[in-house]
Design a protein that fits this description.
heterodimer; A: two-stranded antiparallel ribbon; globular; B: globular
């Protein structure tokens, strides 16, 4: 798909990987809309890039997603590219043993992470694809997964959510392919973003970097470039591109 | 202009995995278990490619029986 003039939505586009994707799409002359719940971040984004359309929305809430995507469709029509990037990077072991005793993984956090990282992908996609089908738009859904989808110790909720995202990528590629809609996954490894630093402590991150054959974290722009390349390649479908510096080899 | 009859039956039989002899005009989505929503999408793409036409969403919704498929195709200029 040629990106110039195409309508793209990036969820969680205010910072980190999402921000890098927004900047790369703008450089390719796509018409970008960001869905994000960070109102202050959206204001700052709007000031920096006046071409970006900003919609404040909690994508883990189905009613809000339905309302926000309806408004978008009324104004712009069907979207060509949806990048499901929003989510929470969260780490907690299933059972914690401390000097004070034993504690379970927080069940509320389990639900919160599943809602933010998995349900949000379903909510955004079902609303956007409905419009693609009624207008016969041959669009693209890009789901941002993670190398944690194969199971990362200490990340029950995050790993389960991302494994679910990979499954949805395969299911939707099969369901929607006949209508000309491609569904793609991109699974970054450990990337140099604020959310990585917030969720993984410095010592653990140093150990992880030692396991990466390239001995460094990924850069957000490198992940964004990967996303753009699979959008451009019209035969890439139903697969998850791993961009992890060789971590999972 | 292309012929509707024969080709529609053949395409339906391929998608629904049914003998051509069983594809009659009164065959409808609601009476054939195999003709579900996913098969319907496959059928639409098969008809578009087979007759080199583009169907609108309204056409897709309307084409829920063999007779309706033929009616829409005739409206698109495909002759019987």
């Amino acid at each position: 798909m040629e990106l110039r003039g195409k309508k793209a939505i990036v969820t969680g586009g205010v910072r980190g990987l999402g921000r890098a994707m927004v900047e790369t799409l703008l450089a390719s002359e796509a018409a970008v809309t960001v869905f994000d719940l960070n109102a202050a971040g959206l204001d700052e984004l709007r000031k920096q890039y006046n071409l970006v359309n900003c919609i404040e929305c909690d994508v883990s809430d189905y009613e809000k997603v339905t309302a926000a995507t309806s408004r978008y469709h009324e104004q712009f029509g069907a979207v060509d590219i949806l990048i499901n990037n929003a989510g929470i990077l969260y780490s907690e072991p299933l059972i914690k043993i401390t000097s004070e005793g034993i504690t379970r993984h927080d069940a509320a956090m389990w639900n919160k992470v599943l809602a933010a990282d998995l349900s949000s992908v379903f909510y955004m996609t079902v609303c956007v694809v409905e419009k693609m089908i009624t207008t016969r738009t041959r669009g693209i859904i890009v789901n941002i997964s993670s190398v944690s989808a194969s199971g990362n110790a200490g990340q029950s909720a995050y790993s389960a959510a991302k494994a679910g995202v990979n499954a949805l990528t395969a299911v939707w590629a099969k369901e929607l392919g006949p209508m000309g809609i491609r569904v793609i996954g991109v699974a970054p490894g450990f990337t140099d973003t604020d959310s990585t630093k917030e969720a993984v402590n410095e010592a653990a991150l140093r150990e992880t970097v030692k396991k990466v054959p390239l001995r460094r974290l990924g850069k957000p722009a490198e992940i964004a470039d990967g996303v753009i390349s699979v959008i451009r390649n019209d035969f890439f479908n139903g697969k998850v591109l791993e961009l992890d510096g060789g971590l999972t080899v | 202009m292309q012929q509707v009859d024969g080709k529609v039956e053949y395409l339906l039989s391929e998608v629904l995995q049914m003998p051509v002899s069983e594809i009659t005009d009164d065959l409808a989505m609601k009476t054939v278990d195999a003709w579900d929503s996913l098969k319907h999408m496959e059928l639409i793409v098969s008809l578009e490619q087979g007759f080199e036409i583009q169907l609108s969403f309204d056409d897709i919704v309307a084409m829920q029986s063999v007779s309706e498929i033929k009616r829409v195709l005739r409206e698109k200029g495909v002759t019987s």
